[in-house]
Amino acid sequence: MPRRSLFSTAERESLLELPKAEDERIRYYMFNEADLSFINQHRGSANRLGLAVQLCYLRFPGIILNVDQRPFPPVLKLVADQLGVAVDQWNKYGHREQTRREHLLELQGWLKLIPFGIAEYRQIVYQLAELAQQTDRGIVLAEALIDMLRNQSIILPAIDVIERVCSEALM
Questions:
Q1: Which of 3, 94, 145, 169 is the most buried (most CB within 10 A)?
Q2: What is the pTM of this model?
Q3: What region holds the DUF4158 domain (predicted)?
Q4: Beta pairing partners, 80
């Protein structure tokens, strides 16, 4: 029997949503000189664009962009404009899985992020347990979980994992 979802469809979509307002995108996704220096160390327009987009997604909302996932067009355009490359260079990025993996490892080091693993899972369930005694609303727990992970510089897991953590904290 399938388990009941803690989140509505709208809540699921809102949890890891990218900024819709231009001023928010500028706040999160404008590169400083150090970022540009790091990005420009990589060869080829497609690699620089791909790395820079991954950097943006890791900074906010704090996720890894899936291989088959296209970036949010306004974010892609903002990044491409900053780098002076064409948006269509995205289509040439990451044909080699190894390139994307290497870029993600470099970005984790650059941003001082750690991946979400079993130790983080257990720790977050424990941390959420107190809040779970005060509410049975999954979205409240999920928002708190996401804030905790961001504050601890941990890459956010998939929504299904976030939901599982919240369910476990509610037990």
A1: 145
A2: 0.91
A3: 6-169
A4: none
